[in-house]
Amino acid sequence: MMQEVLRLQNLQKSFGSVRALKNASLTLREGEVVALLGDNGAGKSTLIKAISGVFPIDRGDIYVRGEKVSIRSTREAMDLGIETIHQDTSLAPDLSIARNLFLGREPVNLKWLGVFAPLDLAELRDAASALLKRVGISKKLDADALVSTLSGGERQSIAISRAMQFAAKVIILDEPTNNLGVEETHGVLRFVKEMRAAGHSVLLITHNIHHVFEVADRIIVMRRGEIVAEQTVADTDLLTVESLITGADLSALMKRAQ
Amino acid sequence: MVQQVMVQQVGAVTSEDGAGRAKGRSSLMRSPQFSSFVILIVLLAVFALADGNFLSPLNISNMMAFLPELGIIALGMTLLLTAGEFDLSVGAVFALAPVVVMLLVQNAGIDIGVALLAGLLLCIVIGAINGVIVTKIGISSFLVTLSMLLIVRGAALYITQGFPLKSWDQPGFFVTLLAGSFNIGAFRFYTSLWWFIGLSLLAVYVLRYAKLGNWISAIGSNRNAAVARGVPADAVKIWLFILTSVLAGLAGMISAFRISAASPVAGTGYELEVIAMVVVGGTALTGGRGTILGTIVGALMLRAIRNGIVLVGVPGLAYNIFVGVIILAMLILHALLQKNAARS
Questions:
Q1: CATH number, position A9
Q2: Helix %, strand %, coil % for chain A, to 5?
Q3: What distance in Å separates residue B278's CA from the closest CA in chain A?
């Protein structure tokens, strides 16, 4: 069995009187793609925001490689090797690709100057070009180009390569194929497979169940703040998964209809 | 002459900053600060031709005395706008800070150094309040700083009972530091010009080359993305509000010491003139894109317009019509350039 990378135990989170997360537990192992499914309001976003440090959890434990951790900020999550790619909001359009790739982790000279330290512009450009080449999108893109000039798929690729570059243990993708064209969507799914091949663990949040069957190893279904099912892709089918998401027994309905 | 040298220097820096980029010349030509720069040159040429006194040593000295006072505030405003916020209370702070300093010195007999320190502390507090309310409570900076404008201006009027303070003219280290003057040939310059040049260089460095500048642009461009990358967006914004307030107070003190008097109505309307300088220079009002060089060009432009229009005989009361028209023309030009760039 592959080594465990991330384990969540009985996470709870309430917003006022709304219990967005009730006792959510899950385990993510090295080099696997786990799809997190659920209808709107099922608690998927709350769960990933808790893991990526957007807000603190009320109760429960988070373990990274078996060690108990507390994640109080996005910075701490990144330092633990958890990279999150939020839908549409991961990049600053007015900055160049290179500056976006290293945002928050800029290579600098004279480190003792703190936030006033000068950027190492040569290193920034070289590292960005090398990265773009490695992920196979150097042909079209210039590291100095502004992100506002890129297409949606190109932006998603940049965000994903950024997560890969920092050797993240866990990469969380929140609706990565939203608003993308067919070809761009396939590009992103190819990226997900590459990430798995490179040993990253991926937590994929999506509405598109077809994508799940294409790339995921395991499926976790959430409903009303709880994890209601966990299945390996090989042992399930589309209809079963849809029933789990909606809570209605669709296969029984189908049988009755026949 | 000196005006020309200044202009050449600005030009040199502009081209240097473009040379670093991959696209070099063409992107430089299309950059907003370049078009502003061209228009500045045209304006200067028109005024110089229309009135021979425009480039006289006396007039240039005059312009250079006023330029830093609004220019210094504009530097802070550029950084703040780039981070996606703005500050309408700068004109009021420009009045209150020197009023408090002068009151402490004249009425309480406090040492000028201590009084200046108290004035700066006051600016820090005002900026911090602006910043904390905007970031932590989440009210738009327009509303917060509009209220602050009223509070600060009201405070200045109340503590002075609406009258300008007695003139105060005792030379000393701090007075020389803020408003000393010196002659170069036929030109008379104030130390405030050095403040403006020094602060401009610092601001260019921070915004273009420092890690902090990357953060500022990222916050203004897409705050959520910056926060997701671990950038402390709220802290950066609060410090920028503080910086802008402090620079407004500093400018107010420079101005008050230059004319040896502090008035509670000084700087009325400066907030809008400063924002005009910044956006005319090419900084986006919506955040994400800021240029200090553009702001310097914008500050020079508004100063030249204000001065030149009077020289060529436009009635003083018509001044704002021209300023408004020129600002609008600049903004239309920027918008057209932006569209062109997007298309190509």
A1: 3.40.50.300
A2: 40, 30, 35
A3: 18
Phi and psi angles of residue B61, each rounded to the nearest 5 degrees, phi first: -60, -40
Q: Which of B180, B182, B186 is closest to B1 using CA atoms?
A: B186
Residues of chain A contacting residue B341, judged by C-beta atoms under 8 Å apart:
none
Q: Is residue A147 in a domain?
A: no
Domain interval for residue A77: 4-94+167-257
B2-343 CATH: 1.10.3470
Round to whole Å and give the CA distance between B144 and B89: 9
Look at chain A and count its residues.
258
Task: Determine the Cα–Cα distance for residues A117 and A131; give it in Å rounded to an integer.
Answer: 23
Judged by a CB distance cut-off of 8 A, whether residue A119 touches chain B is yes
Distance CA A228, CA B336 (A): 55
Interface test with B, best of A83, A97, A103, A171 (most B CBs within 10 A): A103
Over chain A (258 residues), the average pLDDT of each successive run of 10 is 84 88 89 89 87 88 90 87 80 92 90 91 88 67 85 81 78 84 81 85 88 90 88 84 78 64
Does residue A195 fall inside a structural domain?
A: yes
- ipTM of predicted assembly, 2 dp: 0.79
Question: In this complex, how many residue pairs, one in chain A and one in chain B, have their CB atoms less than 8 Å apart?
Answer: 91
Q: Which residues of A touch B229 (CB under 8 A)?
A: 74, 78, 103-105
Question: Do the Cβ atoms of B295 and B281 come closer than 8 Å?
Answer: yes
